[in-house]
Amino acid sequence: MSTADVTRIKEVFAAADAARAPLHLVHENLGGRGINLFIGNKHAASTPETLAEHGIGMVFNCAVNLDINMVTQPDSSSRALPFGWGPVRYYKLGIVDGPGNPAPMILAGYYQLKGAIDQVLPQKASYPWEDRGHVLIHCRGGRSRSVTLAALFLHLECPDQYPTIETAVDHIRVARELQKEEWPQAPKEVLVDAARWAADMVQMIAPHTPKTL
After folding, report:
1. In a domain? residue 16
2. Residue 180 DSSP code
3. Fewer CB in 10 Å around end: N or C, the chain?
4. pLDDT tens sequence across 162-183
5. Which residues are in the Tyrosine specific protein phosphatases domain (predicted)?
């Protein structure tokens, strides 16, 4: 890809980002759990008011090159950098937006996301979240890494609605209001290939996976 091509793609993305809302609802009531799935960008994930407005209680960051300080209640024993609780449960899977990810990373992301949704937290003071809430999957722009992981999850969890990775990707592109000019790079094909492989691995592992440990 030439420098001119890269520049043109960046310009298309920048224009589309400016016109697009920071997050979109892509699926309601995941698997009958009463949990809605949103996809968004860095602005959606870093704005507590936006998260609260949409009832989001879990934030899943797919970007290796994006860190967000979610701590709103710092621990008194913090020293160099604050640590403590945030208003949401925060998870991170550091994916490169393109080639360079080991194949199992997308697979690991599926299990991490599924675990976050299905996890039962102890009723203790050190687990302060009262409501599980809805889920936001995000990356920097909310159009490639987050779309890939969400498509894998929807395909595996709702196969009647999304029988292939491609049908899930197509649905998310529309729900996220990605422009046709963005589609060749949103999401990156190498990530979609990794999601197809991960879906096959999950199907292979499923008969041997206990519900809880």
Report:
1. no
2. G
3. C
4. 999 999 999 999 999 998 888 8
5. 111-176
